[in-house]
Amino acid sequence: MRRKPKFYTRLHNKQKPETPSRTVSTLRSRPTMAELSPLTRLFVKISDSLSEEDLRNLRAILAREGLGQGKVEQATPHEMFNMLEADNRIGKGNLGFLVQVLRSLKKGKLAEEAELVQQQERREEVEKVAAKYKASVEAAISKITQKVEALKSEITATAENCEQVEKEIQQHYKRLISKLQLEEQEMITRVQRVNRDREGELKDKMETELKKTKEAEISVQKMLDCKDDTEALVLRQDMEERFKKLSLQESDDRSGEGLTKVTFQPCSLSQVSGGSLSVFAGFSIDVQEPAVESLPCSVTVTTNKADLTGGDVAPQIEVTSPQGKTTLIQTTAHTGPPLAAGKGQTSRVRRVWGGEWRPQESGKHTLRVCMGGKKDLSSLTVDVGSNNPVLRFGQRGSQQGQFDGPRDVAVRGDRLYMYVADTWNQRVQVFDLSGKFCSSFSTTTNPGSLAVQTNGTIVVRSLKEVKTFSPSGKLVHKFPLGEYCTDPYGLAVQRDGRVVIADPDKHSIFLFEADGTLVKQVGGQGQGEGQFDKPRFVCVDKEDNIIVADKINHRVQVFDKNLNFKHKFGQKGRQPQNMIGPNGVSADSRGNIVLANIGEKSGDDVGGIKHSKKLQVFRPDGTWVSTISSDGDKLKRPHGVAVTEDGHVFVADTGHNCIRKYRYM
């Protein structure tokens, strides 16, 4: 049962007759008019002011606007207000339709009061949003202030650290110089001692030799003075013996030349080291743009010193997700900005590396620098945002820009137009890529899928017919599908005009010529190659390959332009890369495939990634790239999708009767 809005409940309670059993306190607990919200008071005033004729006119207006004659014929004003709110015609801050109705009923003052209430509610909503963003800005400023203070503290700590190390270096080299000077003095003293000892030894030896020479001289003189032949003979023999000894002594003295040489072997200066200086190269990590789930962003690693990391080794970035899963980002060297050179110095370059990061979930991630076996050289916490729509427009209704069960979308890239199959309103609506309404045209029957050719021709599958419309919306050709298809659904058009149709009831894909002639049928229920289980949507890529969302098989199959099987990918599961009910499918000019999963069955107001209602991006070979969860604006029943050349995708959500636009590249 649909929940009744608050204003209806209050009005309903107000009209209940009082019973005698009610106490005074119970009566006092009922809200007075002053205690009701402005919107509720307005509804009460309108209800009280309507005459029987006003009620008849009101019922007629609402019946014309699509609420149905049967619904409004016996409805009270309160019930009609309830219908309008349920149909999203009126609500808080949205009273434009009510103002028009009141003016039609010639209730000018009430219309003016409704406009004032609308303005007040919108103003309150703006103030609420402004307060929210003010708090966010103040929180951001607080974080930046804290970071600046932390940097100031780091600058002070670095200066104090370097000053202390400088003192330690000076003290160390003073001790080293003192030690070297002492060693120098000791070496000189040793040399001087050797010199003194050797000098005394040589002087003693010299005196001995001089004494021997004197004795020989005396013996020679005695021999010359001797007159006795016998004594002279004895003296001569003594002299010969002395000369022989002197001759031997001279030979010994010559053989000892060089024994007094003193040498010094200095140590190599390269072997002398007063110590070593270790500097841990600090790194900083920076994410160049806001990190958003499923979208690529640039991450840089910069050294805080110049040329402290030589060689070809590049750092890696280890990323830890909110769930504790770790991945590695590889980096490559970039050219860093030059550091300012001091007086007498050469300009140096700071080392910079860069890599691409595509976070796969929202929430707080931790990035750490790893290099040379060392981890956590620097870290950064990044709060990754959900990939929410960059644009959302539409609501249930039949007016311009409103929808009733939109099933499919198509984009004409050269003209920047987007087309919506507005199924139950039996029309196609045309918008620019910013969501601004441009035009619409009738399809007579319910359109379920559409495609736009490069010449602007719009091809629509409407019930069991394929209809071709001119760019202005004029029907120019059609052909029936009933002979071959029992439940035609998705449609795609190749460059030569051939039409591809998916039939989930026949579990088949059909290829037709532009005039409706059947070219080929592929399929049958099953899980083999070229078999399907309720395929709904199809698309073609730039080579006219046919891509099929095989819904109940939870996979995608790819065929060439003539419906010959090429490859398949995907399987059922709850992991980001797995599929549950692939539905809408589109391919961009690079061959990337964007897929909408309709997910599991859930309550009317429940959607989102929890039930696998998500968008996925795959490379042409089926490699998973990313998943868009849209947690901030949950998908309910995503159907057809269409990509743009600037990396965005439009999604038709039949559950919310709206179109959403996401960035996927």
Plain-language structure description:
With 665 residues, the protein is of the alpha+beta class. The chain has three domains: 122-249, no CATH class; 283-338 and 347-384, Immunoglobulin-like (Sandwich), CATH 2.60.40; 391-663, TolB, C-terminal domain (Neuraminidase, 6 Propeller), CATH 2.120.10. 32% of the residues lie in helices and 27% in strands. It is built from nine helices and 33 strands. Strands 1, 2, 5, 6 and 7 form a five-stranded antiparallel β-sheet that branches. Strands 4-3-8-9 form a four-stranded antiparallel β-sheet, with no helix packed on it. It has a four-stranded antiparallel β-sheet with strand order 10-33-32-31, with no helix packed on it. Helix 1 (6-15) runs antiparallel to helix 6 (77-86), helix 4 packs parallel to helix 6 (77-86) and helix 7 (96-104) runs antiparallel to helix 8. The longest helix has 118 residues, at 108-225. Mean pLDDT is 83; it is low at 1-28, 250-260, 270-274 and 276-280.
